[in-house]
Amino acid sequence: MNLQKIQNPPTNLRKMLTFLGPGFILSASIVGSGELIATTVLGAKAGFITFWVILVSCIIKVGIQLEFGKNAIISGRPIMAEFNKLNGFRLGTANWMVWMTFFLTLLKILQLGGMLGGAAIAFSLIFPGIPISFAVVFLGLSVGLLIFKNYYKLIEKLATIMVFGFTFFTLISLIAIFFTPYSFSIVDILEGLSFELPKKYLFVAIGAFGITGVASDEIIAYTYWCQEKGYAAYTGENDGSESWNTRAKGWIKVMHLDAFVAMICYTIVTAAFYLLGAAILHGNETVPEGNELIAFLASIYTKSLGSGVRLGYLIGAFIALYSSVFATLAYWSRLFPDIFHELKWWRIKSQSDKDYAVKVWAIIFPALWILTYLFLKLPTFMVLVGGVIGSVLLLVVVYAAIQFRIKNDFLKLDSSFISTAIFWLSVISIALVSGYGILKIF
User: Fold this and answer.
1) Would the CA dihedral through 52, 53, 56, 62 be positive or negative?
2) Residue 264: helix, strand or coil by DSSP?
3) At 338, is the secondary structure helix, strand, or coil?
4) Which of 145, 160, 258, 373 could cross-link with 117 by S-S, CB 3.0 to 4.6 Å?
5) pTM exceeds 0.70
C-alpha cells in the first residue's frame, strides 16, 4: 500500500468540485463524431421522431459508467486485468470479454478513420488550398506525435476549453433558430418523445445510440481516467479496515458527481445538435455521405446565425473531431498494451514498459486510421458503422458491469435503492434497445 498517496476524500461540494476531471475528458471525447455527425445526421434524416433515442442514449448509460468507475476505485487494477478475472468462457489465457473487446475495438478503426477524415475535411475547408488527403495524413501524424511526446495534459486542457466553447456556440445557434423560419414548437418535441422507431431509420438510430452519450469505449476509458486522476490511489488497497471503507465511499461519491456533471453537459449539447439537424436539415432529399458532409452540416449554423458564422462552425467542427480522435488515441494506447499483456502477447512488467507500448500504439493506430479513410472516404458511413459495432460492445460492457456489481456487492459501498434502480434501469434499457436494433439490422 502506498501510504504517501492515500488521502481522505473531500466532504463538501466546493472541495469535491476541485477533484472533478475524468468526466470532462470524456466530454471532450464525446462532443465529436457522435454529436457532430451521427446525431445531426439522424435528426436530418428522421426529423423529430427519433429525438427520444438520443436522450435515452445519453441518460441511461451513466449507471453502467458508475459501476465501472466504482470497480476501478476498489480494485486499482487495469480494466482488462479485471475482465480477465471474471467468470466465463476462456480462450487460451484470456476471458472471452478480453477477446471481444480486442476484436470489436479493432473493427472500430473504421469509425476513427471517419472521425479523422471529418476533421481533415473541416481543416481543408478552413484552409481551401490544402487537399483533404494531405490534411488527413498531417492530422493523423500530428495526433500520434502528441501522444508519443506525452503532451496530453496541455492538449487536454486546451481541447476541453475549445470544445466547451463550441458547445456554447451550438446552444446560441439553437436559441437563434426560434427567430428564423426553421423555428419548431413543443408539439415537435413531444412527437420526438413518442418512442417510435421507423424501420427505415433503424441503422442510423442504432448507430447513433451506440456512439452518442457515454459509448462503450468511453465507459471502458473512464476507468483509466479515474485511476490516473488518483481516485483509486487516494483510496488505497483494501485492508478490510473501517477507514478504507470510509475513504472508498467518499471517493466513489466524488466519482458519481464527476459523472453526473459531465452527463448534464453532453446531454444538453447532444440534444441541441439533434434539434438543429431536425429543424434545419430534415426534408433535404439527400444527406451527403462523402467529403461534402461537413459543409452540408455547417448549414445548421449559417441558416440560424447567418453566413458569417460558417468559419466559426468549421473551426469548432475541426476542434470537436480532432479532440475526439486525440482522446480516443490516448485511451487506445493504454487499452491495447493491457489487452496484449492479458493475452500474453506483450509483457508489461514496469511503467517504462507501458510508456514504450503507448508510444508504439501512438504510431500504429493513426497510420491505420489514415489508410482506412483514404480507402473509403465515406465519413458518415464509417462513423455510423462504428456506432453499430459500439452497440455490440455495449452489451459486453453491460455484462461486465453486472459481474462487477455482484463481485463488489459484499462491500456495501454503493447499495442504496436509488443507485440500484439506476443501475438496473441502465442494464435493461441498453439490453432492449441494443438487442432489438442488432436483431433488426442483422
Assistant:
1) negative
2) helix
3) helix
4) 373
5) yes
- Report the candidate in 435, 434, 410, 409 with the shortest Cα–Cα distance to residue 423: 409
Residue 94 main-chain phi, psi, to 5 deg: -125, 150
**Which amino acid belongs to residue 437?**
G
- Considering only CA atoms, which of 325, 167, 229 is closest in space to residue 22? 229
Angle between helices 51-60 and 417-441 (to 10 degrees): 130
Contact 300, 43 (CB under 8 A): no
Highest mean pLDDT (candidates 37-41, 50-54, 173-177, 396-400): 396-400
Three cell numbers, residue 136: 488527413
Query: Of the ranges 323-327, 329-333, 367-371, 429-433, which one carries the lowest mean pLDDT score?
Result: 429-433
Closest to 392 measured CA to CA, from 168, 103, 47, 49: 103
* Cell 472541495, residue located: 15
- The pLDDT assigned to 324 comes to 84
Region at 240 (left for phi over 0; alpha for psi -120 to 50; beta for the rest): left
- Distance (Å, whole) CA 317 – CA 310: 10
Flag the least confident range among 39-53, 205-219, 415-429: 205-219
Q: Is 360 exposed, middle or buried (0-12, 13-18, 19+ CB in 10 A)?
A: middle
pLDDT in the model for residue 310: 76
- From CA 286, how far away is CA 69, in angstroms rounded? 41
Using CA atoms, how far apart are residues 368 and 111, in angstroms rounded to an integer?
A: 11
C-alpha span between 144 and 294 (Å, rounded): 23
Cα–Cα distance measured from residue 383 to residue 386, given in angstroms and rounded to the nearest whole number: 5
- Cα–Cα distance for residue pair 226/204, rounded to 1 Å: 32
Interatomic CA distance for residues 326 and 154, integer angstroms: 12
Residue 370 to residues 34, 87, 207, 411, Cα–Cα distance (Å) = 19, 38, 22, 46
Q: Which domains does the chain have, with CATH numbers?
A: 13-441 (1.10.4160.10)
CA nearest to 263, candidates 428, 426, 60: 60
| Ramachandran class of 113: left when φ > 0, alpha when ψ lies in -120 to 50, beta otherwise | alpha
pLDDT in tens, 245-293: 999 999 999 999 999 988 888 888 888 888 888 888 786 656 666 667 7
